[in-house]
Amino acid sequence: MEFATVLVGAVIFLILFLWLRSASRNLPPCPLRPLPVVGHLFYMAKDARPQFEEFRKRCGDIYSLYMGGTLVVVLNGYDLIKEALVKKADVFSDRPHFYSDMAVGMKNKGIIFSNGAIWKEQRSVSLSILRAFGMGKNLLAEKTQEEVACYVDYLASLKGNPTDIQVITNISTCNIICSILIGRRFEYDDKALQKLMHQLGALVTDQKNMGLINFIFWLRYIPGDLFKAKSIARNRRAVFSELMKFIEEKKRHVVDSDDVCNLIDAYILERNKKIQAGTCTSLDDQHLTKIMYDLFVAGTETTSTTIYWCILYMLHYPEIQEKVYQEIKQKVGTNRAPTIQDKPQMTYLNAVICETQRLASIVPLSVTHVCSEDVSLRGYDLPKGAYIITNLDTALHDQASWGDDSTSFKPERFIDNNGDLQIPEQFIPFSTGRRVCLGEALAKMELFLFLSTMFQRFQFLPPTAQSVPELKYKPGIVASPQAYEVRLVERK
């Protein structure tokens, strides 16, 4: 008890010290005085998006917050985000190291949260593998089309009854990642797939506790598991253990370069080449495990959530849904499924997908960056180690970039006067700079193949004419719609 009292007192003193010290430094303005111990975490306990919008109105495009005792600088608006992540990429491209990785021995592993030479090698190898699959053997498109065919057949089996498609869509996009990583898809009732989905789901549930654990370090030492520190570590170990099993299985059946059809085999072959050549390399099983985890987390929920949002928007805009269908009938017909080769011709569908990504803004606060050295930004002095949050909502929704109707669903904003697709530079749903999402090309391909096939085969209708689901989101790292039901009626 005495130790806990001393510890809490020390933390309160540290918070006050940091606050008083920041007042004498040239930091961006702070919208509210931080609370003892938690800083500004309390204000974002439920939904940070409206709070961040209010802070921007008070302070402008750049302001400071404290998450526990950690200085966090929030950047708003496309111009400021570009200035930091693109023009000053040398300083703003690093990631912080969070407890959720350190607790399971994954600090500086994989792609998303690694830095320096390790990040460069891991990203380079992973990207070259994905590009080889996509451009050489076209395996990514083939694997995705195979999965989409199974997915729409499942939807057809629902016979047009009101259904919430979120779970099955999430499973289907997860299956594509499985195909890429291990070279096979699973049936939807497969126990191994269901186990993996359950474990990944537990990590999503843990997200609401990660802010406290990552920023208030001493909470993890409190007896019991009130703040879920032990649960977070346990769930992540369970996922990494399952992923490691896939790696061990592949290592027992080594293939040559001509037979490579999945990321695990390709990564192991590349590692072996470097070792045999005597080249210093960071490629190892731990990094591979974390890369697999990164791809599952970044490539499953985000893609399925975008699909889920698009269908919801179509329930509100049936005239847009019909226009997409007519484009598909004209460009592809109804006797074959769309392929990735059809994508350049489908201007209106591509615009609908872009507008869904823009308006839904499913990862509104992106992934946190950290200053690798002291830097000046917009006249303020940001110290080395300051965390950086880029508010993508502002880049995707600002009226200065998108017009007075920026909160309306309007695919035409992505079509120029000649009827061609146009992508404004402010359109950055995958972020921008050196840390732009590794799976951007994969996500674009998946979204096109899933949605073009769904539009071709089904009409999307609300449960009843009087019960169109509301356009509301659930707060979280990924902003998903509130659960809703839809009737998918097969077209004649």
TrEMBL record:
Topology in the lipid bilayer: Peripheral membrane protein
SUPFAM superfamilies membership: Cytochrome P450 (SSF48264)
Cofactor(s) demanded: heme
GO molecular-function term, one example from the UniProt record: heme binding
Documented EC number(s): 1.14.14.16
InterPro entries: Cyt_P450, Cyt_P450_CS, Cyt_P450_E_grp-I, Cyt_P450_sf, Cytochrome_P450_fam2
Enzyme class per UniProt: oxidoreductase
GO terms under biological process: lipid biosynthetic process; organic acid metabolic process; steroid metabolic process; xenobiotic metabolic process
Pfam hit, one: p450
Keywords from the UniProt entry: Endoplasmic reticulum, Heme, Iron, Lipid-binding, Membrane, Metal-binding, Microsome, Monooxygenase, Oxidoreductase
Binding site for heme: C437
Keyword Membrane in annotation: yes
Keyword Isomerase: no
Lineage top rank: taxon: Eukaryota
Cellular component, GO annotation: endoplasmic reticulum membrane
Record PANTHER family: CYTOCHROME P450 306A1, CYTOCHROME P450 508A4-RELATED
Protein name, per record: Steroid 21-hydroxylase
